[in-house]
What we know:
Blueprint: E1 9-11, H1 16-23, E2 29-31, H2 46-64, E3 73-83, E4 86-88, H3 94-104, E5 108-119, E6 125-136, H4 141-149, E7 170-174, H5 177-181, H6 185-193
Parallel strand pairs: 1-2, 1-3
Antiparallel strand pairs: 3-4, 3-5, 5-6, 6-7
Helix pairs in contact: 3-4
Amino acid sequence: MDNTQQRPIILASTSPRRKELIASLHLAFDVIPSHANEDTPPEWTPEQTVQELALRKALAVYRGLEGREQEAIIVGSDTVVVLDGEILGKPLDEADAERMLSRLQGRVHRVFTGVACIDAGNGQSLVHYRQTDVTMKELSDATIRAYVQTGEPSDKAGSYAIQGIGASLIDRIEGCYFNVVGLPLSLLSDMLDGFGVHVLPRT
Ligand SMILES: Cc1cn([C@H]2C[C@H](O)[C@@H](COP(=O)(O)OP(=O)(O)OP(=O)(O)O)O2)c(=O)[nH]c1=O
């Protein structure tokens, strides 16, 4: 018997990458952009930060539903890049992107993505995260400048996109690739199982 997806999913995100990633699981979903406050205390760990922000994004959409869509599962997500214990978010401008890439080049950094699921029927939530180690090649200043000029880094944590031109900057990764792009699909499918949404039939 096919007992795949039983409940609608709402992706609480403005990110086109997350939309593409969840679509690749062939799940039916709607997108409601979430505009949660993303300020966090500097002393928070990356694990705390991405999990709390993922939950805030999902909660902001949940609160806006006002009792509609009770069947839905709301999914929120947040990604940061961490180097030497410091969280690198999205660059403020091109100079900031160049600075970030100059620090990341030739080094290993860690990407954290938090995922939150909320059951709109009863408000029950589940939050987890994944981490992936990413080794960036050594890059010249000219290469970094040329990459920043492509415009790709502007809305990406750590100022690069592994799924785009930025793939040419990455030597290797250890862990979930989709976690780096912004939505760890293996983790998400496990979390959705707990809410009765199955990517594949389960016996
Ligand atoms: C490291 C890396 C990050 N990113 C992206 C994923 C996220 O979209 C973004 C980090 O910013 P986030 O604040 O996690 O997400 P967002 O603002 O883009 O979207 P949302 O509305 O869901 O909050 O960086 C890539 O696309 N590729 C990469 O290789």
